Amino acid sequence: MRLKKIFILLILIGFLEPVWAERIKDITTIKGVRSNQLVGYGLVVGLDGSGDQTSQTPFTVQSLKAMLSQYGVSLPPGVRPQVKNIAAVSVHADLPPFAKIGQTIDVTVSSLGNAKSLRGGSLLMTPLKGADGNIYGLAQGNLIVGGLGVEGADGSSVTINIPSVGRIPGGGTIEREIANPFANGDKITLNLKRADFTTAKRLADTINQVLGPNNARAQDSVTVAINAPQDVSQRVGFMSFIENLEFQPGEAPAKVIVNARSGTVVIGNHVKVYAAAVSHGNLTVTITNTSDVSQPAPFARRGETVETVESDIDVTADFSRMFRFPEGVTLNEIVRAVNQVGASPGDLVAILESLKQVGALSAELIVI
């Protein structure tokens, strides 16, 4: 009898779906802990004749004159230098949270003018500003360009990737810190990356089970506030413990995402359809032209040889299959039924859209 009970228990376990737990750090962010965007304008020098055409990009010449004037070099009035080894560029980078003065960050350099390539160039010192207009970093260094552009004498050219964009690993140096609210207040707020009331409640319940009741409170479908220690060092250890806790988030809503360009269809879990019938078939029209020559009868006094065309039209219809979705069909049954009729991705898109229009598809249909 005992072995029989164990056997029945193993069978029931086999029918259960696996439960996947997520770490808190993987599905949440801390309020106020974020990166900031920096941008700057500068010059790339040392190009091998692939820089801006100064006749079409006057701002490059203006930038060159302004830079030279800072070092006491002034060009005579009316002189317009023709330099093909300089390119005006924009420089942008992300300032990570808790970044300190003296640390380095990667920067991306993009051509603003008509430079053909930035390969082999060096970025001169460029201030990096934030949205408030303050300078938070400086960028300078040699560019790494993954693209390649080659042009022949006859005007033919070959371009691989994008040669007008490059990167400088560690090319930016932080000169100003950004105040962070992590150490302020008596609470730490976690924001879910995907809004869901069930996930927010389960997150608060998991933290309360570990820390005790009323230590975490779900404020809406995204925000969960947690009581945190005032001391900064203790708060760091506290968050290290919290972010590694695991819990089961709520399941995502039923969605069907269709990429109309590539024909890719992704069907989420819990997608069901109500009772509906779908007919799938193809109609093929084949037109064949046959050329023939018409000649006059032998010894005829009149007539001429002409070419005639005869058309043969054949209309065929593939075997049309109709299948019925009973109410409450699951995801696996939908895929199996569509595969049985040999539907292509485009046909599957049409079937799903038709089901949605008649109200038989119990999911959100998103076409991108």
Detailed description of the structure:
The chain is α+β, with helices and mostly antiparallel strands and 368 residues long. It folds into three domains: 36-71 and 79-174, no CATH class; 185-247, no CATH class; 256-296 and 304-367, no CATH class. It has seven helices and 23 strands. The chain starts with a helix and ends with a strand.
Cα-based radius of gyration, to the nearest Å = 34 Å
Overall residue-averaged pLDDT value:
79
Number of strands: 23
Q: Approximately how much beta-strand content do the residues carry?
A: 35-45%
In helices, the fraction of residues equals 10-25%
Q: Please give the domain count.
A: 3
**Global outline:** flat
**Largest sheet properties:** 6 strands, antiparallel, barrel
Count of DSSP H/I helices: 7
Uncertain parts: 1-18, 152-156
Order of helices and strands: HEHEEHEEEEEEEEHEEHEEEEEEEEHHEE
Report how far the terminal alpha carbons are from each other.
Answer: 57 Å
Instruction: Name the structural class.
Output: alpha+beta
Q: What's the arrangement of strands in the largest beta sheet?
A: 3-4-5-10-7-6
Short description, anyone?
This protein is an alpha+beta fold and about 375 residues long. The protein has seven helices and 23 strands. The strands form eight sheets. The protein has a six-stranded antiparallel β-barrel. A four-stranded antiparallel β-sheet has the order 2-11-13-12.
Descriptive labels:
368 residues; alpha+beta; 3 domains; six-stranded antiparallel β-barrel; four-stranded antiparallel sheet; 7 helices; 23 strands; 22% helix; flat; disordered N terminus
